[in-house]
Specification:
The two termini are 25 Å apart. The longest helix is centred in the middle third of the chain and has 22 residues. A hairpin with a 4-residue loop joins strand 4 and strand 5. With 246 residues, this protein is an alpha/beta fold.
Length: 246
């Protein structure tokens, strides 16, 4: 059954008009009145429900689609732990791929960063448009993989500004992907259990500079490694997420 993200309150036995995004997708699929679909809204229902709803299409207009919301199903497919990914944006379309796959793995949020070695540098309106595009990529990935919480793609920040905004380290775990000597294997730390709340910081192509790594360590990030091979920026971030989430 087709699944659609609907960022509006959903209540059983009510009729609603779909927002423009899912309405357009319904029309592209050439669905008709009487066809059934699945709606989810990431807990934005009246009772903060985090599952999904059956719905039946009742009207197909040229630009509007109306549905009757049916039964609620408390389906949970979310990760047990929360992992927030802060990543130096890879160039070209690799960031799109990273957002898609990170969403499939169950990441809680994604923070795009500009670092010293970043090739992709965004600001102003261009940055806002990119973030909106990546958010739509995350929505589509959630619709496909069965997730009921869409990770938030945060506004682009420089690494220093983001580090400065971090609260004092408490019980959360903070990991820094590093190739520097003295970095310990991530698996070694995870053997003792995984914290409920994790932030994973990964650099762009070429990694973070020595100064950036020092600033991150001063903010409570533990330098870790994934092994002896040097992975692409987007591959490294996803490999770390897989170890933390799967």
């Amino acid at each position: 059954m087709p699944r659609f993200y609907c960022h509006t309150p959903l209540v059983s036995d009510t009729e609603i008009e779909l927002p423009s995004g899912p309405a357009r997708h319904v029309q592209v699929l050439r669905l008709q009145p009487g066809d059934t679909i699945t709606l989810f809204n990431g807990g934005h229902g009246v009772s903060g429900q985090d599952g999904e709803f059956d719905a039946t299409i009742t009207h197909m207009g040229r630009s509007d689609v109306q549905v009757k919301v049916g039964a609620y199903r408390a389906v949970g497919r979310e990760a047990v732990v929360a992992v927030h990914l802060a990543v130096g944006m890879p160039a070209n379309d690799r960031m799109d791929w990273l957002v898609e796959k990170a969403t499939e793995l169950g990441v809680a949020s994604i923070q795009p960063l500009i670092t010293e070695r970043s090739v992709l540098r965004l600001s102003g309106e261009r940055a806002d448009k990119k973030v909106a595009h990546w958010q739509s990529v995350a929505v589509a990935a959630c619709e496909q993989c069965g997730g009921n919480r869409v990770p938030q793609v945060m506004p682009v920040k420089t690494l220093p500004a983001w580090l400065q905004s971090q609260p004092p380290k408490d019980t959360d775990a903070r990991w820094l992907l590093s190739l520097c000597e003295g970095s310990s294997p991530l698996a070694q730390h995870l053997a003792h259990g995984t914290a409920a709340y994790n932030t994973f910081l990964s650099g762009p192509e070429g990694g973070l500079s020595a100064a950036e790594e020092a600033a991150s360590a001063a903010c409570g990030f533990t330098p870790v490694t994934l092994g002896t091979r040097v992975l692409r920026a987007e591959t490294a971030a996803l490999a770390a997420l897989a170890r933390l989430l799967v």
